[in-house]
Design goal:
Length: 356
């Protein structure tokens, strides 16, 4: 078997190839993740803030489809600040014109409280019972007691960092590897505290600085769209890559038809980082709504609660005025190949470029 230039990640997870298919809540199917794992990469399910029953179901589906390692991903959220009645009224007034334009009626009143902070006891017990081979976190880390129990259960853990300081926290918390997520990345920025949509470090600058700051293997993420990007990540000192947008093109992904059209035509300039849909910064299609909301960055409700206000906009297909299509800057490099073929093509191409 061919050895990659840095075998730490392949050895850690027992992979043939250090290619992690990113967990993408709502866009990944067990079929996609299992195909990646069976092809020698690491398939991931994105469970975001789903209840513990989904961990049981996700692990069951993955174990039925693959004997290889797989990854379960969760959002670990900080305590949300309560929204005042005044802030809520201002927000609803701000959204009213686009609701009117799209014929969606009144801006809804919030239905849900803030999602739970951190990792709940029920979730911890479900994870310990299911013991996914790899567990990854986005937006932050569970507390030390939970981390110690998960580690003692033999679960390998990784977490997104969007800055060098966050990468140091990920290492100090006992994670086995850190995902350095650059600005180009599609989807939600994994910053450990809410930050503005102007706040981010590009992959080319972030990865080598994280490599210099920590001892654990670094997984590069963001804007890696083909074999050249993987080879470049290794040159920057990464031991592997996490690719999301590239896998949105795969037939096994649950990417909806409109987003498939957008990513097929993408050229790198068609996305923007916005917190106007979910309350947390995310790279998505540059809709008119996202652009109109730029001056109000940082003034939305918290993650989870903000969807009460924008769910109907996200789903309102009308000419993409306000639809929420998450994807990254490298979408234009992708090709609609079955996942196993994509992993084979990416790994062969990268190994060739790396002179292996
Ligand atoms: C549609 C979409 C959904 C995403 N959802 C998640 C998620 O649920 N959990 C997570 O850790 N990362 C999520 N991400 C971010 C990825 O983990 C990763 O950082 C990103 O895809 C890398 O950049 P790329 O899209 O340019 O490959 C998502 C990305 C996309 C494109």
């Amino acid at each position: 078997m061919v050895r990659w230039p840095d075998p730490r990640l392949t050895d850690l997870f027992g992979l043939a190839h250090p290619i992690i298919q990113a967990p993408m809540g709502g866009s990944v199917t067990p079929e996609l993740a299992a195909a990646v794992s069976n092809a020698g990469g690491l398939g991931s399910l994105g469970l975001t803030i789903d209840p513990p029953a989904e961990v049981r179901e996700g692990c069951r589906a993955m174990r039925a489809a693959t004997n290889a390692a797989f990854n379960i991903n969760l959002f670990i959220l900080p305590q949300a600040a309560a929204q005042s009645a005044e802030a809520r009224a201002t927000l609803r007034a701000r959204l009213a014109p686009v609701y009117a334009e799209l014929g969606l009626g009144e801006v809804p009143q919030p239905q849900h409280g803030a999602p739970a902070q951190g990792l709940s006891d029920e979730m911890l017990e479900a994870l310990l019972a299911q013991r996914p081979p790899v567990l990854s976190f986005h937006f932050g880390l569970p507390g030390p007691a939970a981390m110690a129990r998960l580690k003692a259960a033999g679960i390998k853990m990784i977490c997104t960092a969007s800055t060098v300081a966050e990468a140091r926290l990920v290492e100090a918390a006992g994670c086995d590897a850190v995902i350095a997520q650059g600005w180009e990345a599609g989807g939600h920025r994994g910053a450990h505290a809410p930050n503005g949509p102007m706040d981010g470090v590009g992959t080319m600058a972030l990865v080598p600085q994280v490599v210099d700051a920590v001892r654990i293997p670094v997984i590069a993420a963001g804007g890696i769209g083909d074999a050249r990007g993987i080879a470049a990540a290794f040159m920057l000192g990464a031991a592997g890559v996490q690719m999301g947008t590239a896998f949105l093109h795969c037939p096994e992904a649950s990417t909806d038809m409109r987003r498939r059209q957008l990513i097929a035509l993408a050229d790198g300039g068609d996305t923007v980082v916005t917190d106007a849909y979910s309350g947390r910064s995310a790279r998505a299609y540059r809709s008119r709504f996202a652009r109109d909301m730029v001056p109000f960055a940082g003034q939305f409700a918290g993650y989870g609660q903000m969807y009460d206000f924008t769910d109907r906009l996200c789903d309102a297909g009308a000419e993409d005025v306000a639809s929420f299509h998450l994807y990254g800057q490298a979408a234009g490099l992708g090709r609609a190949l079955p996942a196993a073929e994509l992993v084979a093509e990416l790994s062969e191409g990268a190994l060739r470029l790396l002179g292996r």
